Structures are given as C-alpha cells and as structure tokens.
Amino acid sequence: MIRVTIWNEFLHEKIHKAVSDVYPDGIHAAIAAGIGEADLEIGTATLEQQEHGLSEEALNRTDVLIWWGHMGHEKVEDAIVHRVHQRVLDGMGLIVLHSGHFSKIFKALMGTTCDLKWREADEKERIWTVDPAHPIAAGVPEHFTLEREEMYGEHFDIPAPDELIFVSWFEGGEVFRSGCTFHRGQGKIFYFRPGHESYPTYYDGNVLKIIRNAVRWAAPSGAAKPMRGNHQPLEPIGKR
Amino acid sequence: MIRVTIWNEFLHEKIHKAVSDVYPDGIHAAIAAGIGEADLEIGTATLEQQEHGLSEEALNRTDVLIWWGHMGHEKVEDAIVHRVHQRVLDGMGLIVLHSGHFSKIFKALMGTTCDLKWREADEKERIWTVDPAHPIAAGVPEHFTLEREEMYGEHFDIPAPDELIFVSWFEGGEVFRSGCTFHRGQGKIFYFRPGHESYPTYYDGNVLKIIRNAVRWAAPSGAAKPMRGNHQPLEPIGKR
Amino acid sequence: MIRVTIWNEFLHEKIHKAVSDVYPDGIHAAIAAGIGEADLEIGTATLEQQEHGLSEEALNRTDVLIWWGHMGHEKVEDAIVHRVHQRVLDGMGLIVLHSGHFSKIFKALMGTTCDLKWREADEKERIWTVDPAHPIAAGVPEHFTLEREEMYGEHFDIPAPDELIFVSWFEGGEVFRSGCTFHRGQGKIFYFRPGHESYPTYYDGNVLKIIRNAVRWAAPSGAAKPMRGNHQPLEPIGKR
Amino acid sequence: MIRVTIWNEFLHEKIHKAVSDVYPDGIHAAIAAGIGEADLEIGTATLEQQEHGLSEEALNRTDVLIWWGHMGHEKVEDAIVHRVHQRVLDGMGLIVLHSGHFSKIFKALMGTTCDLKWREADEKERIWTVDPAHPIAAGVPEHFTLEREEMYGEHFDIPAPDELIFVSWFEGGEVFRSGCTFHRGQGKIFYFRPGHESYPTYYDGNVLKIIRNAVRWAAPSGAAKPMRGNHQPLEPIGKR
C-alpha cells in the first residue's frame, strides 16, 4: 500500500468561478478521484490548514507527496518547506505538477530559478513519449493531445533531468521538457507539466495514468540510510 | 508474474573441478535457486542447447533475461545475438553479469569495446551504494564485502550509464562502476559486476538481492510501441 | 589547429537536379565553405573515392569527422565502418548530420535502431536551445527557424544522450531531440538533425555556427589512453 | 583571456601553524601560482575582505570562480551567496574544491545536503579517470596517487552528476565520486575532491592540471540569455 498525500494550495477554486466550475471540490479532489486504485491510500492537504496540512506526523505517514501550487507559493512557510525537503532527501517521493515549478520546495530541490516561458491562449498541447522504456510511460500512447492548455516553453531553467520522459509541442511554436525525473538523496522526484487550473486537464485519462504511474515509481525504495560523518577505516592504513 | 530466463554458457562447470565444486549444477542453477520468489517464474538456458536455448518462442515468453558468459562468447551465433538484441529493443529486460561485459550482446548494445582491467588474486571487493534512491538498491546496505573476487578495474569502456548505483573498491587499489543501468529502445539493461566462476559469489545474500531487485526493475514497462517511418501531419502545414 | 574531414556520400547531388541546384559542388563543399575559420584545417571525402576516402592514413590525420549519408548507407563497407568506429573510441570526434542517423557507423556506436518518424512536406522547423550552458550553443539564439525542412519526429530510438542541447518543433505537430552529445571511449559524438539534401539548410548561419562549435567541442581532449587487460596490484593483497 | 577569481576563506592558514607551514601565503596563493598560464588572468578574494571580496563589480569581471572553504562556511553572508548563485545561473563558471562541498553556495546549487563520510588518517588516495573523453581529463594519467589526504567516502549526497570524470580509491576501504560536472542555468560547475588544508595537495601537478582544465571548461560559453515570462505566439493559434 502506497500512502499518497495530494497537496493543493486550493485558492483559485475559492476565488474564481471559472476554476470552481472545472474543479468544484478543488484540484486535489479531482486528482484523488482520478488516480484512485486499490494499492493507493490517498489523502489530501491544503495551504490554509494548520501547518498547511503537512505536520511532521502527516509527512511521516506519506510515501509520495503530490504538489500543486500557483498564486500562493509565497504563503508557504519556510519551516514547512524545509520539513518537506528533508523528507524527500530521506526517501519520500515528490510529484510536482504544472505551476508547482515555481514552488519553494521545487526551487530548493533544483537549485535553479525553474523559470520558463508561458502563455494563456486556449492552446493545443501535444505530449510525446521520448523514453518508452520508462515505467512512468506504462500504458501511455506515443503521443496524446490536450485540446486547450496553458503553454510552457523552453528554456526551462532546471538541472538536466536524470531521465526525460515526455516532451510537449505547443500550437504557438514552442517545445517543453514536460516529464522529468530527478533523484535527490533517497528521494525520487517527478515534474509533470500539464494542469492549468482553468482547464479540465486532471480529468484526462492519460494525464491521470501518468500521475498514477509516477506515484508507484516515486514510492520509497527502501535502500539503507547512508551513514554520514567521521568514519572508521574498514581496512588497515599505513601498516604495509 | 515476471518470466525470467537465466542464460549461462555452462562451460567452466563441465571442465574445471574448482568451478563445479562451487557450482555443481551450474551458475544458472545457483542463481535460479537464489533469487526465487513467488512473483518470479524462472527458467534457464545454456549455450550447448539448440539455438542456445534462445528460440524465438523462448524469448517471446521471457520478460527478463539474465546473461552469464565468459570463455564461450565467440560460440554464440550472431543470429541469436541479433534476436536477443531485437527483443531488448522491444522491451525485454536484460541483466548482464560479470564477464558478460565481453559478450556479443552487451557489446552490440553498448557500441563500445566494454574492455576493462582485471586480475585474479583472491582479492577483497567492497561494493558501495552511490544511488540510495534506486529500486535496485532496495534493502541493500550502504556497503558490503565479498572476501574474494576477481578484480575489474577502470577505465571500463562503456557509455556513461543512465544511472550509476554501485561502485566497487578493490584491495589491490582499483575502483569500478559495478552497477549500471541503461535504457535501449523499450528495454532496460542492468550490468552488475560480481560473479567470477571460481568464487561463491552467487550464494551471497546481497548479490542475490540486487539481482532480484534488478529483475523487477527491468521487467517490461508496457509503454506503447513507437510508430516509425513516414508520418502524416497531425496539424495543417503551410496553410496559414 | 583542428583537422576536420567532411564525409558526404555525394550521390543525390549527381542524380537529382533539385539537389545539385542547391548544392552544386556537394553538401560537403557547402559545409566546408560555411564553417571555415582560421583554427580549422578542412578536407573532404566521399563514398566513391577509394576506401571511401577514409584510409587509415586519412583517418589518422583527422581530429573530427563530419558524416552526411542517406541513400548510400549500405554501400559503405563494413571494414571502413569498423575502422571509423575504432578511431572514434580512440578519440576522434564524430559529428553525424541529419539522415546520418541511419548510417552504419552511428547505429554501431549507439547500439539501437536509430529509427524515427519522418515526412517531406516543405515544413517549418523551429529549433530551441534547452542547454544554454553548453559550448555547442555558443552564440546561438534561444530559438531559430528553418522555413522548410524535412520533419523528423519522436520516438527517436537512441540511448538517452549524455547532453540534450536542442529540441525541434515542427509545424505538423511533432518534436525531436535535435542536438545530442555522447561520449564513447575517448571520443565525443554530436548528432545534429537539420540538413535535408533538397533544402538550403547548410547555408543557414545558425546551423553552420552549431556545426563549427561542435567541431571545436568534439576535438580530441588528449586524456591518457587507458590500459586494458591483466593488471598488477598497486597495493598489497591479503598480507594484512 | 579567462578571468579567474580564487576564493579562499583563508582562516586555517592564520590559525594553525601546520597549515601555514604548507600554505604560507594561503591556499588561494598556491593555486594561483600553480595554475597560472598565459590565457588566464588570475585574482583572489577571501572571507575577511569587504563583501568577502565578492562585490558585484568583482563578480562581473569574473569568468570562473574557484571556491575553497571549510571552517568559515557559516560566516559567508547569505546576500553574497545569493549574488554568486545568480552569477552562476547567468553563466559564470564555478569550481568547488574539497570541503567546499559544505559551502552555502554549493548546497544551494545542488539542493541536497552534500553530506559524506570523512576521516583524517594520513591516508593514501588514488584517483581514477573514468571519462577519458572529457576535456577536464586532458593530459591526466589514467590514475594518480596522493600519498596523504583526508578521506571522503560515499554516499556523497549530491544529484547524479551530469558527467562523472574521476573516482577515488582510499586506503581505508572507501570510494568517492571525486570529479563531477553540473550545468545550472547558463553556468557550469565542477566539483573536485582533493585538497585538505594540511596536505600539500595544491602543489601536485595532476591536481593543478585538472583545476586548470576545469577553468577552461567552465568559462562561459556565450549562448543567448533565455527570455522568460509571458511569451507571444510564434505561430497562429486556433485559426486553422
């Protein structure tokens, strides 16, 4: 059983009718309903909950954290960001969606600005699978189309991903590295581009399949925790 | 259920008593006994069987192929190598062990000489986990020791691995990239260094755990098979 | 001084007026004229020359080999391919252009089919720089457009490149990893997509700049040649 | 001409006679003297200078910054760290030496703890070249030995490096990824392990050669600065 926590800042849905029309119970609820399967135990957390719903206890019982944020990035407390960061390095999986590219936690893990080009123009996005060996691409066609999405364009200022799985084509002439994996410490991270709040992206079957695959991929592997610091020799030194 | 075929050239065991003392039923039998668990359906194949035990039919019902070869590399027919190569590109996992670095199939997949330094001196090897986030390291300590092994030393002439999981230390002063992953086509490949025929390496719990983890990691992911060749436009061209 | 040999199969130009209209002296001559600068000593070689112009002596005085081939891949003798392969592993740089993706030498170095999608439709290609730190991108804008090119689309069946520098957008709806680096042995390889024989791509300033940058990047680095084979211990074994 | 600034916290040398005996004018001075060649314009900066010697102006005229720090990491002001970080993302090269693994700037760029094992035991280190195609390995033997160094051991908690060039063997039984490259934004980063303050490591010819090679490799490439933010379509949208 993989314990998943879906974190959503849950602000647009309360403010903009255009958003709540699409996600009446919030983006987190739509994703939770969409990815649910027998091997996943799914909970949610939001910005305005105490400790943003991310207490030590809540994180300790989370195997994979999904992160959606946008207008509220600056409202996330640094201490909570630090706590999530530490948990990722200790093995918790992290899936960062769409505008989460600018979240404090993603920027802290990447070490770069995570900046990019963007445009809202009811634009077609076509997502191509460039690593068909990867488990996150399981059951995903070689390409699929989202009829209307926000455009994100290169240069996307991230470290070269460990694995590049998906690349997007946009109607207006841009490309984007849309599905990227990273290992950091004992934790696995997947960034996945689609999901603007005003489009029904999180009801798309392929998008949901990819997120579900990513959850299983990102679950902790259970390697031994490395020891750090002053280390006794395992072999004799200077006695030969 | 993952269908595993363990291929062993099975020559040393018939010729050298020192080897058959260690592996009386062959290296393949020792690995089969050692990695067996409920989710694995394990078979074996050897060089001197018809088509080296690797008929089209046998390969088609194999999800992950484990390869051990050494003195018989040149006896493996090119047509069979080509067949295995194609199956890997189509998604079959491949785990290449120890002296398999010089097998025709590994060299064909790597595109390099796969050459290295070596020495037989009853030497201690210590294997360090350098990617503790990786599923192949699940349950593996941060380091473990094989009291006597053949030394393999850098430079190991392979492409930079997609992921480097284990690095070996040798008593005589060398290091080696001992656990390396590669994606090729829809297939996943893991090279794992230990396993000289005259040492009881394939009875070591950590070695067996790593091979078992690798089998699960290398099992086909089931992404859509890419279409190739002449492709019709998905969007209108030059009509704007 | 970097010694460059530009290899072109030089067949289309002799057969198709549409091609010789664009490249009257051959693609190799256009590239040679276009990339010429004071630090480059440039020669050419073609398929129908003796040993395809790639004698041992010719290769030994080549630091970087540029390869353009298409309809004549099968006419390149295996022994010459083997010779070029060996020289790359020994440090010669190799730049593979466009339809060279299907050349024997590129397939042998990659270990994959190198297959892809394609279409000839007088189509717009836009090339995006996704690694602006890379020397091959020096002086290149963040994107530039080729008004008419042949389309190449994903999935491109290559190993994950060591570095991905350029990604192409195509008018008809596809994307492509267009600028990819690989290290193999002591040699450096750059694959660069543009350059269909019927379009004036090799007169484009950005295309020429990228090829020139790649030549400088791919020139041999001069690291020590690794020793192979049986290796004496550098430290005492088993005497502790 | 590449403008190099060598930054050294310059504390141990003032406090510990054992260190000033080895580096009477400071580690920075030894490196400056050791790597000097005609194409390098070398300056130095230290912690106790105003703005740690790293004013906007000083950084703007620096192409490659070399960083050595240890006991004074916490004394480096966050605003200066932020300034250096920004300059790296804008293209300045950064070479982080030895105990600089724990500097604020390296940790901020990596996004991980950068923790490791260590031991001071007058121990032998042997450095192996695992990527002999890399320009940082130019003229470097396939292995070389430092008779006495501090040990650093895996697991080294960094992102998987873009390129792994050197791996160290230690007498006491550990290994370490000692030469690692990273691209971040438009900047190139090289981490190089050797250089404990109490050993004469920065007089070693191979160590100096590697640092000099790294300076040339890390110098800004001069790609176009990517545009960020709201982006106008390059192609018509939704009008087809």
Labels describing this entry:
7 helices, Rossmann fold, homotetramer, 10 strands, 240 residues, alpha/beta
Structure description:
Chain A has helices at about 10-15, 15-20, 25-35, 55-60, 80-90, 105-110, 205-220, and strands at about 1-10, 40-45, 65-70, 95, 115-130, 145-155, 165-170, 175-185, 185-190, 230. With about 240 residues, chain A is α/β, with parallel strands linked by helices. The mean pLDDT of chain A is about 95. In chain A, helix 5 (about 80-90) crosses helix 6 (about 105-110). The first copy, chain A, has a domain at about 1-110 and about 175-220: Rossmann fold (3-Layer(aba) Sandwich). In chain A, about 60% of the residues are buried. A 9-stranded mixed β-sheet of chain A has the order 2-1-3-4-9-8-7-5-6. Chains in contact: A-B, A-C, A-D, B-C, B-D, C-D. The interface of A and C includes residues 130, 142, 156 and 170 of A. Chains A, B, C, D: Keywords: Plasmid. Chains A, B, C, D: It comes from Paenibacillus rhizovicinus. Chains A, B, C, D: This is Trehalose utilization protein ThuA.
